[in-house]
Amino acid sequence: MRFAAFIPVLALLSGCAGAPRVLDYYPEGADAQSPMSWPGSSDIPRLEYAGQLLGEQNFVTNEAEGGGARFLRWLTGLGRGRDRIIQLVRPQTGIVDSRGRILVTDGGSPSVFVFDEVNGSYAVWREAMPGIDFLSPVGIAELLAGGYLVVDADIGAIFVLSPDGVPLGRFTTETLLRPTGLDIDPDNGEVYVADKGASHIKVFSPGGVLLRTIGVAGDSAGELNAPMHICISDGKLLVSDALNAKVQIFAMDDGRWLGQIGRRGLYVGNLVRPKGVTTDRDGNIYVIESYYDHLLIYNQSGELLLPVGGTGNGIGRFFLPAGAWSDERDRIFIADMFNARVVIFRYVSTGA
Protein backbone atom coordinates (compact mmCIF):
# COMPACT_ATOMS: atom_id res chain seq x y z
CA MET A 1 0.00 0.00 0.00
CA ARG A 2 2.88 2.37 0.73
CA PHE A 3 4.32 1.80 -2.74
CA ALA A 4 0.93 2.41 -4.39
CA ALA A 5 0.57 5.70 -2.55
CA PHE A 6 4.07 6.71 -3.63
CA ILE A 7 3.51 6.22 -7.37
CA PRO A 8 1.51 9.46 -7.98
CA VAL A 9 4.36 11.53 -6.57
CA LEU A 10 6.77 9.84 -8.94
CA ALA A 11 4.35 10.39 -11.81
CA LEU A 12 4.58 14.12 -11.16
CA LEU A 13 8.37 14.00 -10.99
CA SER A 14 8.84 11.81 -14.04
CA GLY A 15 6.94 14.32 -16.17
CA CYS A 16 9.85 16.74 -15.81
CA ALA A 17 12.82 14.37 -15.64
CA GLY A 18 15.21 13.37 -18.40
CA ALA A 19 14.70 14.20 -22.07
CA PRO A 20 12.01 16.63 -23.25
CA ARG A 21 8.62 15.01 -23.65
CA VAL A 22 5.86 15.75 -26.13
CA LEU A 23 2.13 15.34 -25.65
CA ASP A 24 0.97 12.92 -28.34
CA TYR A 25 -2.80 13.09 -28.88
CA TYR A 26 -2.72 9.85 -30.86
CA PRO A 27 -1.09 7.37 -28.46
CA GLU A 28 -2.47 4.37 -30.33
CA GLY A 29 -0.67 5.41 -33.52
CA ALA A 30 -3.19 4.37 -36.16
CA ASP A 31 -5.64 7.09 -35.18
CA ALA A 32 -3.38 9.79 -36.58
CA GLN A 33 -3.43 8.08 -39.97
CA SER A 34 -7.22 7.76 -40.07
CA PRO A 35 -8.78 11.23 -39.68
CA MET A 36 -12.53 11.16 -39.18
CA SER A 37 -15.24 13.80 -39.30
CA TRP A 38 -18.98 14.03 -38.66
CA PRO A 39 -21.39 13.92 -40.36
CA GLY A 40 -19.89 11.54 -42.89
CA SER A 41 -20.27 11.16 -46.64
CA SER A 42 -20.16 14.44 -48.58
CA ASP A 43 -21.78 16.60 -45.89
CA ILE A 44 -19.87 19.61 -44.56
CA PRO A 45 -18.13 18.40 -41.39
CA ARG A 46 -19.08 19.92 -38.05
CA LEU A 47 -16.70 17.84 -35.94
CA GLU A 48 -13.26 16.40 -36.60
CA TYR A 49 -11.56 13.78 -34.49
CA ALA A 50 -8.56 15.32 -32.70
CA GLY A 51 -7.20 12.47 -30.60
CA GLN A 52 -7.58 11.12 -27.10
CA LEU A 53 -6.02 11.24 -23.65
CA LEU A 54 -5.25 8.01 -21.82
CA GLY A 55 -2.55 8.92 -19.33
CA GLU A 56 1.20 8.55 -19.15
CA GLN A 57 1.32 6.92 -22.58
CA ASN A 58 0.31 10.23 -24.18
CA PHE A 59 3.83 11.53 -23.53
CA VAL A 60 6.74 10.50 -25.74
CA THR A 61 10.38 11.55 -25.76
CA ASN A 62 12.21 13.08 -28.69
CA GLU A 63 15.58 11.71 -27.71
CA ALA A 64 17.13 9.05 -25.50
CA GLU A 65 16.16 9.25 -21.85
CA GLY A 66 18.69 10.19 -19.23
CA GLY A 67 19.63 7.91 -16.36
CA GLY A 68 17.34 9.68 -13.89
CA ALA A 69 14.32 9.23 -16.15
CA ARG A 70 15.18 5.57 -16.75
CA PHE A 71 15.44 5.00 -13.00
CA LEU A 72 12.04 6.58 -12.36
CA ARG A 73 10.46 4.51 -15.12
CA TRP A 74 12.00 1.34 -13.65
CA LEU A 75 10.87 2.22 -10.13
CA THR A 76 7.27 2.94 -11.14
CA GLY A 77 7.09 0.04 -13.56
CA LEU A 78 6.58 2.26 -16.61
CA GLY A 79 7.57 0.62 -19.86
CA ARG A 80 6.84 -2.93 -18.63
CA GLY A 81 3.36 -3.18 -20.07
CA ARG A 82 0.18 -1.14 -20.25
CA ASP A 83 -1.06 -2.43 -16.88
CA ARG A 84 1.84 -0.63 -15.14
CA ILE A 85 1.33 2.69 -16.88
CA ILE A 86 -0.34 5.41 -14.83
CA GLN A 87 -3.51 6.15 -16.74
CA LEU A 88 -7.09 7.31 -16.50
CA VAL A 89 -9.50 4.88 -14.86
CA ARG A 90 -12.95 6.53 -14.67
CA PRO A 91 -12.65 10.11 -16.00
CA GLN A 92 -15.49 12.40 -14.92
CA THR A 93 -14.98 15.83 -16.46
CA GLY A 94 -12.30 18.50 -16.86
CA ILE A 95 -11.13 21.91 -18.01
CA VAL A 96 -8.42 23.53 -20.10
CA ASP A 97 -6.84 26.18 -17.88
CA SER A 98 -5.32 29.57 -18.68
CA ARG A 99 -1.89 27.94 -19.12
CA GLY A 100 -3.21 25.49 -21.70
CA ARG A 101 -3.04 22.52 -19.36
CA ILE A 102 -5.78 19.90 -19.58
CA LEU A 103 -7.01 18.89 -16.11
CA VAL A 104 -9.20 15.79 -15.82
CA THR A 105 -10.97 14.58 -12.69
CA ASP A 106 -10.93 10.81 -12.29
CA GLY A 107 -13.24 9.00 -9.88
CA GLY A 108 -11.52 5.66 -10.31
CA SER A 109 -8.06 6.78 -9.17
CA PRO A 110 -9.37 9.02 -7.48
CA SER A 111 -7.37 12.08 -8.48
CA VAL A 112 -6.89 14.98 -10.88
CA PHE A 113 -4.74 14.24 -13.96
CA VAL A 114 -2.80 17.15 -15.44
CA PHE A 115 -1.67 17.05 -19.09
CA ASP A 116 0.73 19.92 -19.79
CA GLU A 117 1.37 20.21 -23.53
CA VAL A 118 3.50 23.35 -23.29
CA ASN A 119 6.02 21.94 -20.81
CA GLY A 120 5.74 18.31 -21.86
CA SER A 121 4.90 17.23 -18.32
CA TYR A 122 2.34 15.04 -16.64
CA ALA A 123 1.10 15.04 -13.05
CA VAL A 124 -1.43 13.32 -10.82
CA TRP A 125 -2.89 15.21 -7.85
CA ARG A 126 -4.48 13.02 -5.19
CA GLU A 127 -4.79 15.20 -2.09
CA ALA A 128 -7.98 17.15 -1.41
CA MET A 129 -6.60 18.57 1.84
CA PRO A 130 -3.33 17.97 3.67
CA GLY A 131 -3.53 14.34 4.73
CA ILE A 132 -6.93 13.76 3.09
CA ASP A 133 -7.18 12.17 -0.36
CA PHE A 134 -9.97 12.66 -2.86
CA LEU A 135 -12.72 10.03 -2.80
CA SER A 136 -14.85 11.01 -5.79
CA PRO A 137 -13.67 14.18 -7.57
CA VAL A 138 -16.08 15.44 -10.23
CA GLY A 139 -16.41 19.15 -11.04
CA ILE A 140 -13.33 21.32 -11.49
CA ALA A 141 -12.87 25.01 -12.33
CA GLU A 142 -10.04 27.55 -12.41
CA LEU A 143 -10.30 30.47 -10.02
CA LEU A 144 -9.96 33.94 -11.49
CA ALA A 145 -7.24 34.71 -8.94
CA GLY A 146 -5.38 31.49 -9.76
CA GLY A 147 -5.60 27.94 -8.50
CA TYR A 148 -8.51 25.56 -8.77
CA LEU A 149 -11.70 24.40 -7.11
CA VAL A 150 -12.47 20.68 -7.13
CA VAL A 151 -15.80 19.19 -6.06
CA ASP A 152 -15.77 15.82 -4.32
CA ALA A 153 -19.20 14.16 -4.40
CA ASP A 154 -18.52 11.52 -1.72
CA ILE A 155 -16.88 13.90 0.75
CA GLY A 156 -19.58 16.48 0.00
CA ALA A 157 -17.19 19.43 -0.21
CA ILE A 158 -15.37 21.83 -2.51
CA PHE A 159 -11.60 21.98 -2.15
CA VAL A 160 -9.07 24.65 -3.13
CA LEU A 161 -5.81 23.69 -4.86
CA SER A 162 -2.90 25.94 -5.73
CA PRO A 163 -1.80 26.32 -9.39
CA ASP A 164 0.63 23.47 -8.72
CA GLY A 165 -1.95 21.21 -7.09
CA VAL A 166 -1.03 21.88 -3.47
CA PRO A 167 -4.15 21.41 -1.28
CA LEU A 168 -5.13 24.63 0.51
CA GLY A 169 -8.33 23.66 2.33
CA ARG A 170 -12.10 23.79 1.91
CA PHE A 171 -13.72 26.50 -0.15
CA THR A 172 -16.87 26.85 1.99
CA THR A 173 -18.32 25.66 5.29
CA GLU A 174 -21.82 25.37 3.81
CA THR A 175 -23.44 21.91 3.84
CA LEU A 176 -23.43 20.20 0.45
CA LEU A 177 -25.44 16.99 0.05
CA ARG A 178 -23.82 15.59 -3.09
CA PRO A 179 -22.09 18.24 -5.19
CA THR A 180 -21.08 17.31 -8.73
CA GLY A 181 -20.96 20.01 -11.44
CA LEU A 182 -18.99 23.24 -11.07
CA ASP A 183 -18.38 26.42 -13.03
CA ILE A 184 -17.24 29.99 -12.32
CA ASP A 185 -18.68 33.24 -13.68
CA PRO A 186 -15.80 34.75 -15.71
CA ASP A 187 -17.03 38.29 -14.99
CA ASN A 188 -17.33 38.35 -11.20
CA GLY A 189 -15.84 35.08 -9.97
CA GLU A 190 -19.07 33.74 -8.47
CA VAL A 191 -18.99 29.98 -8.07
CA TYR A 192 -21.90 27.83 -9.30
CA VAL A 193 -22.23 24.29 -7.91
CA ALA A 194 -24.76 21.62 -8.90
CA ASP A 195 -25.82 19.98 -5.65
CA LYS A 196 -27.29 16.75 -6.97
CA GLY A 197 -28.50 15.67 -3.54
CA ALA A 198 -30.36 18.92 -2.89
CA SER A 199 -31.70 19.21 -6.48
CA HIS A 200 -30.65 22.81 -6.89
CA ILE A 201 -27.71 25.01 -7.88
CA LYS A 202 -25.83 26.84 -5.13
CA VAL A 203 -24.14 30.14 -5.96
CA PHE A 204 -21.19 31.29 -3.81
CA SER A 205 -19.14 34.45 -3.64
CA PRO A 206 -15.44 34.10 -4.56
CA GLY A 207 -14.83 33.90 -0.80
CA GLY A 208 -17.15 30.92 -0.29
CA VAL A 209 -20.24 32.71 1.08
CA LEU A 210 -23.57 31.29 -0.09
CA LEU A 211 -25.37 34.02 -2.07
CA ARG A 212 -28.44 32.28 -3.48
CA THR A 213 -29.81 29.06 -4.92
CA ILE A 214 -31.29 28.38 -8.35
CA GLY A 215 -34.10 25.87 -8.87
CA VAL A 216 -36.10 23.69 -6.50
CA ALA A 217 -36.80 19.96 -6.44
CA GLY A 218 -39.48 18.87 -8.90
CA ASP A 219 -40.17 17.97 -12.51
CA SER A 220 -41.80 21.13 -13.91
CA ALA A 221 -40.12 23.93 -15.84
CA GLY A 222 -37.38 25.45 -13.69
CA GLU A 223 -37.47 22.56 -11.21
CA LEU A 224 -34.60 20.10 -10.93
CA ASN A 225 -34.15 16.44 -10.16
CA ALA A 226 -30.53 15.38 -9.59
CA PRO A 227 -28.69 18.08 -11.60
CA MET A 228 -25.30 16.69 -12.61
CA HIS A 229 -23.18 19.05 -14.70
CA ILE A 230 -23.38 22.76 -15.48
CA CYS A 231 -21.95 25.19 -17.99
CA ILE A 232 -21.87 29.00 -18.01
CA SER A 233 -22.13 30.33 -21.55
CA ASP A 234 -22.98 33.78 -22.89
CA GLY A 235 -24.49 34.93 -19.60
CA LYS A 236 -26.66 31.85 -19.21
CA LEU A 237 -26.47 28.82 -16.92
CA LEU A 238 -26.99 25.44 -18.60
CA VAL A 239 -27.86 22.58 -16.23
CA SER A 240 -27.98 18.89 -17.18
CA ASP A 241 -31.05 17.83 -15.23
CA ALA A 242 -30.32 14.11 -15.14
CA LEU A 243 -33.49 12.55 -13.75
CA ASN A 244 -35.77 15.02 -15.56
CA ALA A 245 -34.02 14.04 -18.82
CA LYS A 246 -33.34 17.53 -20.16
CA VAL A 247 -30.94 20.46 -20.08
CA GLN A 248 -32.48 23.49 -18.41
CA ILE A 249 -31.37 27.06 -19.04
CA PHE A 250 -31.45 29.80 -16.39
CA ALA A 251 -30.57 33.48 -16.21
CA MET A 252 -27.50 33.89 -14.05
CA ASP A 253 -28.48 37.16 -12.41
CA ASP A 254 -31.84 36.17 -10.93
CA GLY A 255 -32.25 32.46 -11.68
CA ARG A 256 -35.17 32.93 -14.07
CA TRP A 257 -36.02 29.87 -16.15
CA LEU A 258 -35.32 30.61 -19.82
CA GLY A 259 -36.02 27.30 -21.53
CA GLN A 260 -34.79 23.77 -22.07
CA ILE A 261 -32.90 21.58 -24.52
CA GLY A 262 -34.07 18.04 -25.24
CA ARG A 263 -36.81 15.94 -23.72
CA ARG A 264 -37.34 12.38 -22.56
CA GLY A 265 -37.76 9.80 -25.32
CA LEU A 266 -36.42 6.77 -27.15
CA TYR A 267 -35.27 8.35 -30.41
CA VAL A 268 -31.85 9.78 -31.24
CA GLY A 269 -31.93 13.36 -30.05
CA ASN A 270 -34.09 12.55 -27.03
CA LEU A 271 -32.57 12.29 -23.57
CA VAL A 272 -32.67 9.67 -20.84
CA ARG A 273 -29.68 10.44 -18.60
CA PRO A 274 -27.99 13.68 -19.69
CA LYS A 275 -24.67 14.44 -18.05
CA GLY A 276 -21.96 16.70 -19.46
CA VAL A 277 -22.91 19.93 -21.21
CA THR A 278 -20.78 22.52 -23.00
CA THR A 279 -20.86 24.97 -25.94
CA ASP A 280 -18.72 26.05 -28.87
CA ARG A 281 -17.87 29.50 -30.26
CA ASP A 282 -21.12 29.66 -32.24
CA GLY A 283 -23.27 28.85 -29.22
CA ASN A 284 -24.12 25.29 -30.24
CA ILE A 285 -24.87 23.10 -27.22
CA TYR A 286 -23.20 19.73 -26.68
CA VAL A 287 -24.97 17.27 -24.39
CA ILE A 288 -23.78 13.88 -23.21
CA GLU A 289 -26.57 11.30 -23.34
CA SER A 290 -24.88 8.74 -21.12
CA TYR A 291 -27.53 6.01 -21.20
CA TYR A 292 -27.34 5.61 -24.96
CA ASP A 293 -23.64 6.54 -25.25
CA HIS A 294 -24.13 9.57 -27.48
CA LEU A 295 -22.87 13.11 -27.87
CA LEU A 296 -25.81 15.21 -29.09
CA ILE A 297 -25.30 18.64 -30.64
CA TYR A 298 -28.15 21.17 -30.64
CA ASN A 299 -28.44 24.74 -31.81
CA GLN A 300 -29.53 27.47 -29.41
CA SER A 301 -33.17 26.88 -30.37
CA GLY A 302 -32.94 23.28 -29.21
CA GLU A 303 -32.94 21.72 -32.68
CA LEU A 304 -30.79 18.61 -33.04
CA LEU A 305 -27.91 19.28 -35.42
CA LEU A 306 -25.83 16.15 -35.13
CA PRO A 307 -25.62 12.94 -33.08
CA VAL A 308 -22.26 11.24 -32.59
CA GLY A 309 -21.79 7.94 -30.86
CA GLY A 310 -23.26 4.59 -30.04
CA THR A 311 -21.86 1.97 -27.67
CA GLY A 312 -18.30 0.81 -28.32
CA ASN A 313 -14.64 1.70 -27.98
CA GLY A 314 -13.78 2.77 -31.52
CA ILE A 315 -13.40 6.33 -32.74
CA GLY A 316 -16.72 8.13 -32.33
CA ARG A 317 -18.10 5.47 -29.97
CA PHE A 318 -18.55 5.75 -26.20
CA PHE A 319 -19.21 3.63 -23.12
CA LEU A 320 -21.06 5.50 -20.36
CA PRO A 321 -19.60 8.95 -21.13
CA ALA A 322 -19.78 11.55 -18.36
CA GLY A 323 -18.53 15.14 -18.55
CA ALA A 324 -17.92 17.45 -21.51
CA TRP A 325 -15.96 20.70 -21.83
CA SER A 326 -14.49 22.95 -24.51
CA ASP A 327 -11.59 25.37 -24.91
CA GLU A 328 -10.62 28.50 -26.82
CA ARG A 329 -9.33 26.37 -29.70
CA ASP A 330 -12.88 25.02 -30.18
CA ARG A 331 -11.87 21.57 -29.09
CA ILE A 332 -14.64 19.52 -27.49
CA PHE A 333 -13.53 17.08 -24.78
CA ILE A 334 -15.62 14.03 -23.79
CA ALA A 335 -14.87 12.05 -20.62
CA ASP A 336 -15.53 8.57 -22.02
CA MET A 337 -15.76 7.06 -18.57
CA PHE A 338 -15.91 3.29 -19.02
CA ASN A 339 -13.46 3.41 -21.93
CA ALA A 340 -11.00 5.08 -19.51
CA ARG A 341 -10.17 7.94 -21.86
CA VAL A 342 -10.93 11.50 -22.88
CA VAL A 343 -11.95 11.79 -26.53
CA ILE A 344 -11.18 15.07 -28.29
CA PHE A 345 -13.07 16.59 -31.21
CA ARG A 346 -12.56 19.88 -33.00
CA TYR A 347 -15.57 21.99 -33.95
CA VAL A 348 -15.60 23.13 -37.56
CA SER A 349 -17.49 26.43 -37.73
CA THR A 350 -19.92 26.80 -40.62
CA GLY A 351 -19.87 30.59 -40.32
CA ALA A 352 -18.06 32.94 -42.67
Structural class, judged by helices and strands? mainly beta
Unreliable residue stretches: 1-18, 64-83
Would you report the number of β strands?
A: 31
| Main β-sheet, spatial strand arrangement | 2-3-31-30-29
Q: Whole-Å distance between the termini? A: 57 Å
Indicate the topology.
Blueprint: H1 2-14, E1 21-23, H2 30-33, E2 37-38, E3 47-53, E4 59-61, H3 67-76, E5 91-96, E6 102-106, E7 111-116, E8 121-125, E9 127-129, E10 132-133, E11 137-142, E12 148-152, E13 157-161, E14 167-170, E15 179-184, E16 191-195, E17 200-204, E18 210-214, E19 216-217, E20 223-224, E21 227-233, E22 236-241, E23 246-251, E24 257-261, E25 274-279, E26 285-289, E27 294-298, E28 304-309, E29 324-326, E30 331-336, E31 341-347
Parallel strand pairs: 19-20
Antiparallel strand pairs: 1-4, 2-3, 3-31, 5-6, 6-7, 7-8, 9-10, 11-12, 12-13, 13-14, 15-16, 16-17, 17-18, 21-22, 22-23, 23-24, 25-26, 26-27, 27-28, 29-30, 30-31
Notes on the protein architecture:
- With 352 residues, this protein is mainly β.
- It has one domain (20-62, 88-347): Neuraminidase (6 Propeller), CATH 2.120.10.30.
- 8% of the residues lie in helices and 42% in strands.
- It has helices at residues 2-14, 30-33, 67-76; strands at residues 21-23, 37-38, 47-53, 59-61, 91-96, 102-106, 111-116, 121-125, 127-129, 132-133, 137-142, 148-152, 157-161, 167-170, 179-184, 191-195, 200-204, 210-214, 216-217, 223-224, 227-233, 236-241, 246-251, 257-261, 274-279, 285-289, 294-298, 304-309, 324-326, 331-336, 341-347.
- Strands 2-3-31-30-29 form a five-stranded antiparallel β-sheet, with no helix packed on it. It has a four-stranded antiparallel β-sheet with strand order 5-6-7-8. It has a four-stranded antiparallel β-sheet with strand order 11-12-13-14, with no helix packed on it.
- A hairpin with a 4-residue loop joins strand 26 (285-289) and strand 27.
- The protein is globular.
- It starts with a helix and ends in a 5-residue tail after the last strand.
